[in-house]
Design a protein that fits this description.
- Helix content is about 25%, strand content about 25%.
- The protein is an alpha/beta fold.
- Strand 1 (about 1-5), helix 1 (about 20-45) and strand 2 form a beta-alpha-beta unit.
- Helix 1 runs parallel beside helix 2 and helix 7 (about 305-315) packs antiparallel against helix 8 (about 320-335).
Length: about 350
């Protein structure tokens, strides 16, 4: 039996923390399209069930278009059984509203078990420390949350679970649960910001008796990259360094370049120019100056400008050298007219 395990789609996310309004609106539509693409993938690869392990939606407030699209995709895919476990973001999901599609199976705080062929799928939306599972068949359990907070992996080790389908963490990871069972987070289906970089997708399962083979399938249409560029000892100009660091990244991806290292003076980079220089190379391009100022305090104390006076005042304060340096860097950037936000 083939099964897709996904989680944390966060449909209808605002995403304006990382993108402007126009880009965020495009990404919201793309998240919904990625859900549709996943369902089409399931049909093409003869997948019989899709496990959604929480946070299908980002909040309980869902646009009519998104809600109707998801409901239509599920209802029109009668050959696929959908098992939907609510997460911490979609506690009052619109999919629980009547009429619920016949092929959509829901869970509650107390464990509920469904059977499909020789596979038993058990899910619980509350805090779970132990489970009573059927004695025969392949045992798949769905939970959403973190070990030690919402459930205990240690207490679930000897309960007969063959595959623990988890949601909540946005990066793919898995590990042994018992001698033959595993736990797995598929990560989010598509990244929504630069805190969700790397490959994103879902996990494809294939059951053979009580053995569950699992394979991560990269699926997001766009990947997010946070690219460090060390400019402390530049052997070439910054533009060339950025070009080299991003040369292998697809033009349809989203890129943030972080300038790093110690430099001799503040305001050394024309960030507006660099932003414009690379903006057309990628779907999203952002640049952040995370450099630190290389300070020669003894030399700067002889400076008779406002900058020198400021540094002398900092140096006279009773605080650690690292704190003095941090204050000096912020102050000099402010004197140069930089936006410190």
């Amino acid at each position: 039996m083939r099964i897709i395990h996904c989680a944390d789609l966060h449909l209808d996310s605002v995403m304006t923390k990382h993108f402007d309004e126009e880009t965020a609106a495009i990404r919201r539509r793309e998240l919904l399209l990625d859900f549709e693409r996943m369902v089409e993938y399931a049909k093409e690869h003869r997948v019989q069930a899709i496990l959604i392990a929480g946070d299908l939606f980002d909040t309980d407030v869902v646009s009519r278009m998104t809600a109707e699209t998801v409901r239509r995709m599920i209802a029109s895919s009668e050959e696929i059984a959908f098992y939907y476990l609510r997460g911490n973001h979609d506690i009052h999901s619109v999919l629980r509203e009547e009429p619920v599609p016949k092929n959509l199976h829901l869970f509650s705080k107390n464990p509920i078990t469904y059977q499909q062929e020789d596979v038993y799928i058990t899910g619980a939306e509350g805090i779970t420390d132990s489970l009573q599972l059927p004695e025969d068949g392949c045992q798949i359990v769905m939970l959403h949350g973190m070990d030690g907070k919402d459930f205990s992996l240690a207490k679930l080790q000897n309960t007969g679970i063959d595959y623990l389908a988890l949601g909540h963490l946005h990066t793919y990871q898995w590990g042994a649960l018992s001698e033959h069972g595993v736990y797995c987070y598929p990560g989010c289906l598509s990244g929504r910001g630069f805190d969700e970089c790397g490959e994103k997708g879902f996990v494809l399962l294939e059951t053979k008796g009580r053995k569950v083979l699992h394979t991560f399938i990269p699926f997001a249409r766009r990947r997010l990259w946070d690219v460090p560029v060390d400019v402390s000892k530049p052997e070439e100009d910054v533009v060339s360094q950025i070009k080299k660091a991003t040369a292998d990244i697809a033009k349809t991806d989203m890129v943030r370049v972080s300038l790093q290292g110690e430099v001799d003076s503040v305001g050394e980079w024309n960030l507006a120019y660099l932003q414009m220089r690379f903006a057309e190379h990628f779907f999203v391009f952002q640049i952040k100056d995370r450099t630190a100022l290389r300070l020669d305090m003894e030399a700067l104390k002889k400076d008779r400008t406002m900058r020198g006076e400021f540094l002398r005042l900092v140096q006279e304060q009773e605080m650690t050298d690292s704190k003095k340096k941090a204050i000096a860097q912020l102050g000099l950037r402010a004197l140069m007219g930089e936006n410190l936000e």
